[in-house]
Amino acid sequence: MASVAADPVVQAGLAAEVAVLVAAAHRGGGDMSYLRVFKHLLHFPWQVHRAFPARTMHAIESAILNTEQQHAGELRFAVEGALDLPELLRGVTARERALEVFGNLRVWDTEYNNGVLIYLLMADHDVEIIADRGMHQRIATGEWENVCRAMEALLRQGQYEAAVLQGVALVGALLQQHYPALGEKRNELDNRPVVVKH
């Protein structure tokens, strides 16, 4: 697969196809760039599994479980390698996709509206945090943004596991501050990280 992506003929063909599609999207008012399209088209599923092997996924799950014992919130982590071409042509942003994943994973479906999703779109190196309305009322947008920026700094260095573990810890600290654990709590959402696939 990697040798195909490195083939100059394949890259030239992709470049021509993308140029036509991007031009068509711009005529239709879409919001996309050549660079973003290339990043997504040249991002392969194996790259997600290389960055997030089973050992890393288990470490993330354990971190979520541990932090949820300290607060009353529910936390999920989802990673997606790249958007597909129709989404790129529509100009779907990482934020819009994160909202969709939030709904698909039913993070909103908690008794106290206290679910939080940390979503990573690898091709964009973009982290989005979606908090249910219960959390959103107490925690300022700037606090979530600080977590995203801290994670993205580590992602740019290729430190995927460290980035996510730091994000889980920082979100956990915010939740502990605003939603401390009160006695025994029921785990409403699965703690396992999710690899989003099309």
From TrEMBL:
Gene3D superfamilies: 3.10.310.50. Signal peptide: none annotated. Residues 56-172 form the TPM domain. Pfam families: TPM_phosphatase. This is TPM domain-containing protein.
